[in-house]
Amino acid sequence: MPPIQDQDSRPLLLRGPSLGLRLAVFALLSVVLMVADQRQQYMPVVRSALAAAAYPLVWLVDAPFAAFATAREALRTRAALEAENARLEADNLALSLKLMRFYALEKENTRLRAARAGSARVAERFVVAEILSVDLDPFRQRVLVDKGSSDGVHVAQAALDARGIFGQVTRVGPVTAEIIMISDPDHSIPVQVNRTGVRTIAVGTGRPAELRLPYLPRNADVEAGDLIVTSGLGGVFPPGYPVATVARIRRDPAEPLLAVDAVPTAELDRDPEILLVWFDNRIVEPAQEAAAVPAAAAEPPAAPVGGD
């Protein structure tokens, strides 16, 4: 019969206390440590030392995960910044286009208000005409506008911009009209020097920035910088509207006339729209008006009809 073996087959030296005894010892140790921690505050120092000792190991374990999260956040942030930058650039372009349009509308509004203010005192009515095309012939300074006979436009009608005389209508269609500018070589306009009242004729030269006053005598009182205005003669333009500014005067003792160059006040090569104006051409001479009142007052009453 084989001998009965002990259930614990470990060597005698490795045998220890029973599980119950070890549980009791560890429970008592836990109670003692909790009481010591609560009363004497010994354990925070121990925990701090253990945490400091274990920190390198914790850092090494967490480093790969932290590096991966940082890289992912950096890539996502860069992509988000690039997308936001592209969106902001598109918005900036759209706002710039809108701003340019608003700026153009503001300039157009200011120009139209100035033109209306300049003509409202003597004009019966006016209409704004947009320039559709410009004659490319350098010796024909003419434009086509989008107003015609259906709008009441007629031949020889005055055309102005916000700064002065632009030209006059030469041909009228149902919905368009051709306007000859004052710079056209075939155009001439009666004018006078605003400072002295000297009357003359301004003719076109074929260049939008230059007019010529070829009929001033050598002793005429005219200086550079003088404003040239309409004289009212000819029946197209009323007096006093700006036409040009004297730029150069050349006096040749051998010539009986001055050579005077002037710059148009109207922006002939830049206006996008002009005013077609209907002026009140009725002219009443002050002397005639003053004489008419006494004559009417001195007229005897009519004799009574019939008799006794």
Q: Which CATH top level class of the largest domain fits?
A: Mainly Beta
Span of the ends, CA to CA: 192 Å
Largest sheet: 6 strands, antiparallel, barrel
Number of helices: 3
Amount of helix: 25-40%
Q: So, the CATH homologous superfamily of the largest domain?
A: Rod shape-determining protein MreC, domain 1
Secondary-structure-derived class: alpha+beta
Report strand order across the widest sheet.
Answer: 1-2-5-4-3-12
Low confidence ranges: 282-308
Secondary-structure element string? HHEEEEEEEEEEEEH
**CATH architectural grouping of the largest domain:** Beta Barrel
Q: Please count the beta strands (DSSP E, at least 2 residues each).
A: 12
Cα-based radius of gyration, to the nearest Å: 51 Å
CATH structural fold name of the largest domain: Thrombin, subunit H
Mean pLDDT: 78
Shape: rod-shaped
Number of domains: 2
Strand content: 15-25%
Describe this structure as you would to a colleague.
19% of the residues are buried. The protein is 36% helix and 24% strand. With 308 residues, it is α+β, with helices and mostly antiparallel strands. The radius of gyration is 51 Å and the shape is rod-shaped. Mean pLDDT is 78; it is low at 282-308. The protein has helices spanning 19-40, 43-119, 286-298, and strands spanning 123-134, 142-145, 158-160, 165-172, 177-181, 188-193, 199-204, 211-213, 227-230, 242-250, 259-264, 273-279.
